[in-house]
Write a structure and sequence with these properties.
Elements: H1 2-24, H2 29-43, H3 45-71, H4 76-90, H5 99-118, H6 123-129, H7 137-142, E1 148-149, E2 152-153, H8 159-176, H9 183-204, H10 209-230, H11 234-249
Antiparallel strand pairs: 1-2
Length: about 260
């Protein structure tokens, strides 16, 4: 029952929309994925904007959180109560930033299944695909689709595109990262900023590169959105730290450290 509902309201429309888009875009399935990605992100813009507002609010409340952690360091129950009280006072949900990702998960699954079903090259595959197609002449005229886009095959994994997924996600997370005063929380945040891109990069090495293309374009869209909302954010801090690190290596050591 659930599978039929999923197919009826999500999978079937997405498969047919992708095929029609590819037909309109000169038979280019890669361009169709890019266009549908931009459309999805525009529809998710209200949630993304709310996420960025929450991130900014978390940055503003960081000094207060640090003060609370210092004050109730030995009383974990009181610490949790005061933290939740502060969240309520500022109207912030601790899990609010996860909402856009949770909303996108059905899109990822649907896009993955759509690409796997559309990118067929044998009679059995076409027979199975016909179960998902609408009776539109434009849909049948557009098939079979060309799976090649730029240097890669949309139906198979691509190592370079998987690397781009990791880099784009890391950049977007760095820009959106809240400033954290507590060293322990900062370490946990930095770990998550590293682990998530690595996880998605390895997933992209096993999934069709059409899904990786969606992730790359989606992260680039969010990078542009984040830049116009809050500038380079945490990425500027990282760049400044790297600049100081490398500029310090080229300095001449003081005379007292030079052996005569």
């Amino acid at each position: 029952m659930i599978g039929n509902i999923w197919q009826l309201i999500i999978l079937n429309p997405l498969i047919n929309i992708l095929i029609v888009l590819a037909h309109v875009l000169f038979g280019n399935f890669g361009l169709a994925i890019i266009v549908i990605t931009v459309i999805f992100n525009l529809l998710l813009y209200p949630f993304s904007r709310r996420q960025m507002k929450l991130t900014k609010a978390q940055q503003d409340m960081a000094p207060k959180l640090a003060e609370i952690r210092k004050k109730y360091a030995k009383d974990s129950q009181k610490l949790a109560e005061e933290q939740m009280k502060l969240y309520r006072e500022l109207g912030i949900s601790p899990i609010g930033c996860l909402l856009p990702m949770l909303i996108q998960m059905p899109i990822w699954f649907a896009l993955y299944q759509s690409i796997m079903r559309v990118m067929v090259a044998n009679p059995e595959g076409f027979a199975n695909l016909s179960n998902y197609l609408y009776s539109w002449s434009v849909v049948y005229n557009a098939l079979p689709l060309n799976s090649h886009f730029l240097w890669f095959n949309l139906a198979t994994p691509d190592m370079l595109l998987a690397l781009l997924v990791g880099v784009a996600m890391w950049l977007q997370q760095k820009m959106a990262a809240p400033l954290v005063a507590d060293p322990q929380t900062q370490a946990q945040t930095q770990t998550m900023q590293l682990m998530m891109p690595i996880m998605f990069m390895f997933l992209s090495m096993t999934f069709p590169s059409g899904l990786a293309l969606y992730w790359v374009v989606s992260n680039l869209f969010r990078i542009v959105l984040q830049y116009f909302y809050s500038g380079w954010g945490g990425l500027a801090t990282t760049a400044e730290s790297m600049k100081k690190l490398f500029s310090g290596r080229g300095k001449t050591p003081p005379q007292k450290y030079i052996k005569k």
